[in-house]
Structures are given as C-alpha cells and as structure tokens.
Amino acid sequence: MDNNKLNDVENNDIELENNTNEINESSLENNETNVNSSPDFDFGFIITRHVNSEKTNRYWNRNVKLLRTFYPRKQIVIIDDNSNQSFVKPFHDYKNLITIQSEYPGRGELLPYIYYSRNKWFERAVIMHDSVFFHKRIQFEKFKQFPAISLWHFPPQFFRCHFENNLRIAESLNYSGAIKKMLRSKQVSGCFGVQSFIKYDFLNLIMNKYNINNLVNVVTCREDRCSLERIFAIIFYLELKLIQSVFGDMTSLHIWGKSFDEYINEAPVLPVVKVFTGR
Questions:
Q1: 1 burial class (0-12, 13-18, 19+ CB within 10 angstroms)?
Q2: Could you give the 3-state DSSP secondary structure of residue 249?
Q3: 225 and 103: one domain?
Q4: Is the dihedral of CA 81, 7, 19, 21 positive or negative?
Q5: Which long-range contacts (CB under 8 A, 24 or more apart) does 249-258 make?
Q6: Are 242 and 180 in contact (CB under 8 A)?
Q7: How confident is the model at residue 18 (pLDDT cuts 50, 70, 90)?
Q8: By residue range, what is the domain housing residue 183?
Q9: 14 and 119 assigned to the same domain
Q10: What's the number of domains the chain is made of?
Q11: How far is CA 157 from CA 151, 154, 187, in A?
C-alpha cells in the first residue's frame, strides 16, 4: 500500500486486494460499505469515543468504516464520553451501530465495561479506543479460550508510573489488599488503554467480585484512567494468571507514540494501528 492511497482515503471507494484481508484504501469516509443488515452476535465491538474537533471526529468514523469493511455483520457499540456534540458528525448512516451517551463524563476507558455489564449486546466484546484502526481482519475466534485478554500490553517497569494514584484507585475495590500487593510487586504487564477481548460472563464475574462499578466514583481524569491500565491487568492476572495480549507489547512497536497525522502520511505495516492523541 503506498502513501498516496492512504492520503486519498476520504475520497474514493473501498476495495479488497487479491481476495485477501488487506485493504486497498481509497475511501473510508465518504462511501458506504455494503452491510448485511442481520448482525452476528457471537462477538462485537465497543468503542470509547471523545470528539473535541473536526480531526477527532474523523477517528471514530474511520474506525467504524474499517470495522465495517472487515466485519460487515458484527454489531458496533459506541460509548460517547463527553464529546463536544457540535463536532460529532457521522459520515454515513452506519448499520448495526448503537450509540450510548454516557452519564459519567471523564470516565473514558472504564465506560465500555460499565455499559457492557448492563447490556449483553453479544457474547464477547472487543473493547477499544476510537483511535484504533483495523487494516486486516483479525480472527478473534482464535482467542475464545481466554475469558479475557488484553489487546496490547506494556511491560511491568511502567507500573512505577502513577503509583500512589494506583493505590488510591485500588482502595475503592474489593480485594484491594491483593491488588495493592500486585501493584507493589511490579510483576504484571499492564493492559494498554484498558483495551481487551472479553467474555460477557467473565466481565460480570469480576464486576461483582471486585465491585468495579464503584470506580465511577473515583475515576474522573486521565491519570485515573492510566491507573485503570494497571488495575485491570492485575484483576485479569488474579483471575486468569494471564500476562499475554493479542497484539503484543505496545512499547516495542513502531506505532508507539505516533500521531494521527503520522499515521495518515505513512502506509501502515501492522494489521491494527493505534494512534496517540492525548485527549
């Protein structure tokens, strides 16, 4: 894929190259993809959205358009976290799309877990940010043996960040002693962006066991949401002894720290790209 195709992404039609799952990007934002109106509820996608400009409005539109290309029958749920609605504009009448306006502003990455636990939209969910872009169909079916698994992880040395705040957040949960012990051990990889592939039944188990709903009272800013990356990773580890992720160590990938503009101007070399935006 060359850079010109990516730069022209908003002006033409989508095609698939050579019957593979690679996208020949010509349009993601101005032409609708054919979608079977009958959704598949085996698994679906939950996207956290925060729009504060015309540029960030492009994120979720691109995200959804790419998902529709590779997963035309999967339901997509958008959890909107306090967007400036004057900038929110869908580029299409997207099918099989649910939008939830959150009543908990600023809770960000926590919100998909809160709302999914209340609404069994599908058996399993891919939970991700609006700034994640799929350029290939990932066979999440292969990960069904995991009740939960991070999409990306980061190494244990990053647990030194936000340490006192991590302890404060942990204190609001059941089994806080076990969680704080793991925080101090710095032996668990973090759940990058609190993004995961998770089963509904397992989510409800940990929501009830650890009283995760209580986090809406203590998570209110970006630093708190960074602490969630550590807290959720530890809960996954305590329940599953799992330190793996679907896509690997985010800090070792060339996309680490890349902006949306850099992504637009470079041909993606990974099947899934996350851009960094700092909202």
A1: middle
A2: strand
A3: no
A4: negative
A5: 249/152, 249/153, 249/154, 249/155, 249/189, 250/152, 250/153, 250/154, 250/192, 250/274, 251/154, 251/155, 251/158, 253/152
A6: no
A7: very low
A8: 152-190+204-242
A9: yes
A10: 2
A11: 19, 8, 8
SS3 at position 174: coil
Q: Which amino acid is at 276?
A: F
* Mean pLDDT of the 45-62 span: 97
Question: Are 127 and 259 contained in the same domain?
Answer: yes
**0.70 exceeded by the pTM?**
yes
Q: Which residues have C-beta within 8 Å of that of residue 73, sequence separation ≥ 6?
A: 35, 36, 38, 39, 40, 96
Could you tell me which residue, 23 or 174, shows the higher pLDDT?
Answer: 174
Query: How much is the pLDDT for 254?
Result: 81
Rounded distance between C-alpha atoms, residue 101 and residue 108, angstroms: 12
How much is the average pLDDT of 150-163? 88
pLDDT of res. 24: 44
Please say whether the beta carbons of 225 and 194 come within 8 A.
yes
Measured distance CA(25)–CA(39) in Å, rounded: 24
